[in-house]
Amino acid sequence: QVQLVESGGGLVQAGGSLRLSCAASGITVSVNAMGWYRQAPGKQRDWVATVTSAGSTSYSDSVKGRFTIARDNGANTVHLQMNSLKPEDTAVYYCRAISRGVWGQGTQVTVSS
Predict the structure, then answer these.
(1) What whole-number distance in Å separates Cα of residue 49 and Cα of residue 60?
(2) 10-14: long-range contacts, CB 8 A cutoff, minimum separation 24
(3) If exposure means fewest CB atoms within 10 Å of the residue's CB, which of 24, 28, 44, 96 is most exposed?
(4) What would the 3-class secondary structure string for the chain be?
(5) Phi-psi category of 65—alpha, beta or left, where left has phi over 0 and alpha has psi -120 to 50?
(6) How far is Cα of residue 20 from the mean position of the Cα atoms in its chain?
(7) What percent of the chain is predicted at pLDDT more than 70?
(8) Is 53 left (phi over 0), alpha (psi -120 to 50) or beta?
């Protein structure tokens, strides 16, 4: 079955950077659309970024220019590089295999002011 395991979350000061990873099994990330989403406390889960099977990327307006989604096909992993982090980026970040509708367990990102 498809499994997604996120890692790389943590506590960082505003202006800092983190790199999240999503290790996939049971699915090949290079031929599937993969996405990152986030959910802040008391709020709905929101889309953050997508990389399509063709390699095209797209971002929510709130992270455009600061976050970068990328695939490592050899490691079958999808990364989310997050720069210039803000306190409002604090959330649990989830990886998703979009066409399969499968979610990872999430990784906490906390940005202190």
Answers:
(1) 6
(2) 10/108, 10/109, 10/110, 11/110, 11/111, 11/112, 12/85, 12/109, 12/110, 12/111, 12/112, 13/111, 13/112, 14/85, 14/86, 14/87, 14/111, 14/112, 14/113
(3) 44
(4) CCEEEEECCEEEECCCCEEEEEEEECCCHHHCCEEEEEECCCCCEEEEEEECCCCCEEECCCCCCCEEEEEEHHHCEEEEEECCCCHHHCEEEEEEECCCCEECCCEEEEEEC
(5) left
(6) 6
(7) 100
(8) alpha
Query: What are residue 97's DSSP bridge partners?
Result: 34, 102
Chain position carrying tokens 């999240």: 20
Give which of 63, 101, 81 is closest to 21, Cα–Cα.
81
Whole-angstrom distance, CA of residue 87 vs CA of residue 99: 31
Q: For residue range 29-67, what is the model confidence (pLDDT) as tens digits?
A: 999 999 999 999 999 999 999 999 999 999 999 999 999
